[in-house]
Write a structure and sequence with these properties.
single chain, mainly beta, eight-stranded antiparallel sheet, 0% helix, globular
Length: 139
C-alpha cells in the first residue's frame, strides 16, 4: 500500500494505491495497481479519480530498478454533473535505493489522449515495515 501526495502551482494531489504483485522472479516483477486520488484545486472545483495501472519492473543493480507500464485514470469534477473523463498514459520510471528505506524515484507519463498531459516527476519513497518479516534490510 502507498500513500502519495504532489504539490504543484495552483493545486495539490493526495491519494493512495494498492499493489498486487502477481509475478516475482527476484530480478523481474509484474503487478496490478489500483487506487484513487483527490485533486485540490486553488481557483476551480476539486476532482476525484479512480486510478488503475499495470507495471513491469526489472532490477538492474541491487538498489537500482527500472519500471514501466500503462496507466488509466477516470476523473470527475466534484459538483459538476456529467463531468467524467479518462486519462491514458504510458509510464516509464527509475527507482534508486540510496538509503536502507529511502528511494529516489524519477518517472515520466506520456499522455495518450487529449485529456492526458505528459509529465515528469521526481520524488522520494520511504518504506515503513508493518510486519516482523519486513523488518530486514531491503534490497
Amino acid at each position: 500500500m502507498e500513500a502519495k501526495s504532489g504539490f504543484f502551482d495552483g493545486f495539490t494531489v493526495i491519494g493512495g494505491d494498492v499493489h498486487y504483485r502477481f509475478l516475482n522472479t527476484g530480478r523481474t516483477s509484474m503487478a496490478f495497481i489500483a487506487g484513487g486520488h483527490e485533486a485540490l484545486v486553488r481557483d476551480a472545483p476539486n476532482s476525484t479519480a479512480l486510478d488503475l495501472a499495470a507495471q513491469v519492473s526489472r532490477r538492474i543493480r541491487p538498489r537500482l530498478e527500472i519500471y514501466g507500464g500503462p496507466a488509466f485514470s477516470h476523473e470527475t469534477i466534484n459538483g459538476v454533473a456529467d463531468s467524467g473523463f479518462s486519462r491514458w498514459y504510458v509510464v516509464p520510471g527509475l527507482r534508486w535505493g540510496f538509503a536502507d528505506r529511502l528511494d529516489l524515484l524519477v518517472e515520466g507519463g506520456v499522455g495518450l489522449n487529449h485529456n492526458s498531459p505528459s509529465y515528469v516527476t521526481v520524488g522520494l519513497a520511504a518504506y515503513m515495515p508493518v510486519s516482523d518479516r519486513a523488518q530486514g534490510r531491503r534490497e
